[in-house]
Amino acid sequence: MNLIEAKNLKKYYATQKAVDDISFSVAPGTIFGLLGPNGAGKTTLLRMITGIFYPDEGEILFEGKPFDPQKDIEKIGYMPEERGLYKKMKIGEQALYLARLKGLSKAHAMELIREWFQKLEMESWWNKKVEDLSKGMSQKLQFVTTVLHQPKLIILDEPFSGLDPLNSNIIKDEIFKLAKNGATIIFSTHRMEQVEEICDHIILVNRGQKILDGTVKTVKQQYKENLFKIGFDELPRGAAHPSFAVLDQHADHSLKIRINDGYKPNDVLRHFLQENAPITAFQEILPSLNEIFIKLVEGAPAARQFQNVTA
Fold first, then answer.
1. Hey, which of 33, 66, 76, 146 would disulfide with 199, CB 3.0 to 4.6 Å?
2. Could you tell me if residue 301 is inside a domain?
3. What beta strand segments (E) does 27-183 contain?
4. For 238-262, what is each residue's pLDDT tens digit?
């Protein structure tokens, strides 16, 4: 059973479509990437999943039942892109206050706060105020308050914003541990290299509609272009053959080629073996998610050209 199922979700603002008939499912224990350019509808989707907004049409199922914000909200941790912290409160008091709102006893909350503060090297921050924190320090605190109550569903909107590479790696490792321990994570970001490294499954939305849905591996296979890199001891003199086209050659004695329609990698290998060209490497070049993202949204407006829903 999927933890989350979104069925034909639609959301209108006045007479404008922000989310236009989007469906997807999120399996338990997975890291699910929600991708798209600015204005694509990602934040609206997240706010419907958390009960902040209600869909105008469609349905959200949580653990196989219609989502009930009153009952299910305590099972969700939501870290919005915008800071949701009280600037004048001390950090320790704020973490405790937000944990109690999620139903934790004071003793249990204090135990978990100390554990997380130690993990993320935040022990000395206890009496600091949020307004005195850097953006990265504030982001670490917001992450802790999101996951502290051990929610089944964790929603992270741009969780690495403001973090240096070291702290990004620390948070990334904690995300992996949370998923390994059974949490389901919806991860929204613009940074495609992080998506490739972290996510199991992704959807891409643009202009309010879903345009891509699949595992990272499947998506990369779907958009591959028969590109390969071949390495040699020395570049062969005769590198022309009907089975491929040479796109580039590199100083490390390698060629970037595209295999032509109707041919297979073995045809290329056979050609170079017949030419007595010693091959040291043969590797398929798969597109990055960033390349796929650009290809699918290039030329499209950053935000959906809204339509009058009464028309």
1. 33
2. no
3. 31-35, 57-62, 65-66, 76-79, 153-157
4. 677 899 999 998 888 899 999 999 9
